[in-house]
Amino acid sequence: MRGDLHTHTLYSDGSTPIEKLPFLARCAGLGWLAVSDHDSIRSVRYAYAHPQQEGVNLIPATELTAYDFAREHRVHLLCYYPDDCQALADFSAMMAARRRQAVLQSCAELEQLCPQFRTDEALALCKNSDTLYKTHVMQVLLQYALADSMYGDTYRALFGLKPVRGKILHNPAYESVDTVLALAKQCRAVVVLAHPSVYHSMALAQELIQAGRIDGVEIDHPRNTPEDKAQLTAWAQQYDLIITGGTDYHGMNSAHPRPVGTCTTAEEQILRIRALAQKRKQEL
User: Fold this and answer.
1) Same domain, 113 and 239
2) Tell me: the pLDDT tens digits for 203-213?
3) Same structural domain for residues 256 and 180?
4) 78 shares a domain with 116
5) Are 105 and 170 in contact (CB under 8 A)?
6) Residue 168 maps to a domain
7) Does 169 reside within a domain?
8) What is the distance between the alpha carbons of residues 64 and 92, in angstroms, rounded to a whole number?
9) Fewest CB atoms within 10 A around its CB: which of 7, 40, 49, 88?
10) Same domain, 213 and 244
């Protein structure tokens, strides 16, 4: 059975409790599910503690954020079956603190621009998350009809990056791709480059693939372009890479409604991930 290997919950910037996702996966006819909350060890721990729910096999996962300083853009690395280790816990805590600080700065500036907005209301919405996200800010604005949608014109005016930088945008400091890949290796995770089209990471993808630094690529993703999918497929065949697919599910915190199971991974690829993870955990 197929699986959705890229989803998010209230543990990060999704809108759905993690306990609900296996049910949604079962309804979609899936046999596997990876909850890959951003820079979160909580999604990893949940899957290890609940290997199967609703007849669906849960894969421990997290989506780690890095930065490609050479090309000046973010990079997302999906890490499957990482060890529940201190290094990952420390990284998660560090990124949570950095995100919170950045978004709190945005909130302080928004209070000056918008008298209806109160930071404490955004903080109340993030109580189930590891940290404070821009989506929590937008939920407050949506509640009072002060925004058109989660990721519409209001979001772009406040938090957009291009073509015009948002009025209150503050991003956390990110670690380099090399640093995050080293962390993933230390955690003995299976590493897949997420949605290369989203952050224009095709040049980086080629570089990492040719150097043998990642195990796979995410191809079936709603925002990957047809051209990039074709190139990624060719590279995957040439270098015998794992091929994954995932919806990047965020519930209602999304620009477009995409239910769990919109994009999927073949079971043969999932078994490759599991076998590789098991092999690494047997190594010293």
Assistant:
1) no
2) 999 999 999 99
3) yes
4) no
5) yes
6) no
7) no
8) 9
9) 49
10) yes
Name the domain count of the chain: 2
Beta strands 190-193 and 73-80, pairing class: antiparallel
Do both 202 and 272 map to the same domain? Answer: yes
pTM, rounded to two decimals: 0.97
Q: What are 231's two structure tokens?
A: 């190139």
- Residue 205 contacts residue 196 (beta carbons within 8 Å): yes
71-108 core/surface letters (b: 16 or more CB in 10 A; e: else): eeebbbbbbbbbbeeeebeebbeebbebbbebbeebbe
Cβ burial, residue 21 (10 Å; 0-12/13-18/19+): buried
| Distance between CA atoms of residues 13 and 271, nearest Å | 28
* Tokens of residue 258, six digits: 């995409």
Q: Name beta bridge partners: 191.
A: 79
Q: What is the CATH number of the domain that holds 40?
A: 3.20.20.140
Q: Which residue, among 275, 211, 199, has the nearest Cα to 242 in the 3D structure? A: 275
Q: Is 85 helix (H, G, I), strand (E, B) or coil?
A: coil
Whole-number Cα distances in Å, 247 to 9, 10, 25, 180? 13, 16, 11, 23
Helices (H), strands (E): how many in the chain?
Answer: 10, 8
Q: How far apart are CA 269 and CA 265, in angstroms?
A: 7
205, 275: one domain: yes
Q: Looking at residue 284, what is its pLDDT? A: 60
- The answer to whether residue 166 sits within a structural domain is no
Q: Indicate whether 79 and 191 sit together in one domain.
A: yes
118 — alpha (psi -120 to 50), left (phi > 0) or beta? Answer: beta
Judge residue 219's burial from the number of C-beta atoms within 10 Å of its C-beta, 0-12 exposed, 13-18 middle, 19 or more buried. Answer: buried
Residue ranges of the chain with per-residue pLDDT less than 50? none
Please report whether residue 20 resides in a domain: yes
